[in-house]
User: Which sequence fits this backbone?
């Protein structure tokens, strides 16, 4: 193995991830831009000192290009673009968070009156951002945007604060993604302002939104299977099981049967709170329906 150029430790809450970079090219950081990590995992920091004895990610820059996962370690070989590196760091750090009892949900959340509402990006992911914006426009306080981190007790303990990812890193560009502010322009004219709610709070209500201009308004309380089905989609989002990292290189499988079972057990307890599936033509009608049951 070539010369060790960098050892860096990242953290999200109590979770820690170590990355070792080998090669002939010096590096100051694994990732020069932390925006994507903070968008996806709330508050990711570079620790001033390395505390972990062994790496979780090894990057051999000068080797022929490949990637593999074995014995809990992800190994990159070759010159990889920032985008795939970001995605793998997110997945590996999400696993570390889960081991600490911190579950990243692909969901936004607001403190609305005396309740914390989670807008869940479930199977379809149609409206969690717009629902959050409309709830804040009606006086709610922002808990989280893209990601809500919820502990074993069902308490939202932290979350991302940027509504949209403004720029995708090289290697992960997507032509199918509309301009991030287009929905805001369509539904609100301009982005509303709001206050931040930064205290841990129990999740009181979960809303699975479906916003489409053709939908008639409807609100249905979900049965236990639906709740757990949609929430599992939200949790699995972080492990990139259906992702292509680069042409010819799918994301290695980092999930296990034991982890999936533990996740399902957590869902059984979390999904006992009220869950509503809400169809609406726009965010305003969505929140009108939610207001009826709060």
Assistant:
């Amino acid at each position: 193995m070539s010369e060790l150029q960098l050892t860096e430790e990242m953290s999200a809450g109590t979770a820690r991830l170590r990355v070792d970079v080998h090669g002939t090219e010096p590096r100051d950081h694994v990732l020069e831009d932390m925006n994507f990590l903070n968008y996806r995992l709330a508050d990711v920091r570079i620790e001033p000192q390395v505390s972990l004895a062994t790496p979780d990610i090894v990057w051999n820059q000068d080797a022929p290009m490949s990637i593999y996962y074995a014995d809990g370690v992800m190994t990159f070989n070759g010159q990889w673009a920032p985008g795939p590196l970001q995605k793998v760091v997110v997945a590996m750090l999400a696993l570390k968070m889960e081991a600490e009892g911190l579950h990243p949900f692909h969901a936004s959340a607001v403190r609305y009156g005396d309740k914390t509402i989670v807008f869940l990006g479930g199977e379809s992911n149609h409206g969690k951002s717009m629902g959050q914006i409309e709830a804040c426009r009606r006086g709610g306080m922002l808990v989280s945007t893209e990601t809500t981190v919820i502990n074993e007790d069902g308490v939202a303990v932290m979350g991302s604060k940027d509504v949209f990812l403004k720029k995708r890193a090289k290697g992960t560009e997507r032509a199918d993604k509309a301009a991030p502010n287009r929905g805001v322009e369509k539904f609100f004219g301009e982005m509303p302002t709001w206050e931040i709610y930064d205290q841990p709070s129990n999740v009181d209500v979960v809303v699975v939104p479906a916003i489409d201009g053709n939908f008639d308004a409807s609100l249905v309380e979900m049965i236990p299977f639906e709740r757990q089905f949609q929430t599992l989609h939200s949790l699995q989002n972080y492990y990139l099981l259906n992702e292509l990292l680069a042409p010819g290189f799918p994301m290695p499988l980092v999930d296990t049967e034991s982890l999936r079972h533990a996740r399902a057990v957590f869902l059984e307890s979390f999904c006992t709170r009220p869950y509503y599936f809400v169809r609406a033509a726009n965010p305003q009608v969505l929140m009108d329906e939610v207001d009826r049951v709060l």
Helices lie at 35-41, 82-99, 128-137, 182-188, 224-236, 257-270, 283-293. Residues 102-293 form one domain.
